[in-house]
Amino acid sequence: MTELRHYTNAPITEAIIDLRVTPRDGLTLADVDSIHEGLEDDYPDREDTIEAVGIMEVRAGVGASASARQSRTGSKYRSADGKYIWQIRLDGSTFTRLAPYESWEPFRDEAHRLWKLYRDKVSPKAITRLAVRYINRVDIPVSCPDESVDLQEYFRTSPEISSDLPQRLNQFFLRLAIPYAPVGGTAVINQTIIPPPKEGVVSVVLDIDLVRSEGVPYTDSEIWTIFESLHDGKNDIFEACITPKTRKLFD
Questions:
Q1: Which residues contact residue 43 at a Cβ distance below 8 angstroms, ignoring those fewer than 6 apart?
Q2: Phi (first) and psi of residue 151, to 5 degrees
Q3: 63 falls within a domain
Q4: DSSP class of residue 242?
């Protein structure tokens, strides 16, 4: 495991703890909604979560027709201070911490508290997926908007352009799915350029999603032991993706 580093200006814009389940028979959205009872002060702002499904139908002699269907899957709640978002659905619970990110322990503890409320009410048949996802925005300083940035100076994993092509990039999207044996899962790494929040920087997203979806245990203690491993693995992957020059941006 890589030595844990604490950065003064961590680039984390979102941190996510996700648990997916196989719901019990007969579970309803009313059951899911009832989980929020007693939490109105902590999570006062609510909105529906909606799933949209597109349908294309082709029939001989008639032609093609398209339609869309929307259905409510659960609810999204925002904390009173606006820093946390809690999504609860028939198939799971997702907890998000927005910037400014503080540290793993309070984030994990609140996710665990809410998960226990969800689990006690929902009584799922099985736990099917555990994931820790961190979305980082790395702001690289430039002296002028047209200045080129050599991504390899900042990232150890980045797109490589043939020397026979122009070396300047306006846009790119890189996605890697890597088996990650230390947690018995998969690391999904996404990297892309996004519009910067201010002048004088080029912003690159480094999105790390570490997932365990095979052999997920049912007991609470085992689940949260895995989450510790997922978090440690996320740290290792992040450090493996950046260079010393990038680390200086965060100190």
A1: 36, 77, 78, 79, 80, 84, 86
A2: -60, -30
A3: no
A4: B
CB 21 within 8 A of CB 91: yes
State the residue for tokens 């929020």: 36
Against a cut of 0.85, is the pTM above it? yes
Contact criterion met (CB below 8 Å) for 101 and 15: yes
- From 13, 77, 68, select the one nearest 44 (Cα to Cα): 77
- Is the residue at 1 inside a domain? no
Tokens 């001989």 sit at which residue?
Answer: 60
Whether omega before 100 lies within 30 degrees of 0, making that bond cis, reads: yes
Each residue's pLDDT tens digit, 163-217: 898 877 778 999 999 999 999 999 999 999 999 999 999 999 999 999 999 999 9
173: Cβ contacts below 8 Å, ≥ 6 apart: 190, 191, 192
Range of the domain at 168: 12-46+79-250
Rounded CA-CA distance 42/177 in Å is 36
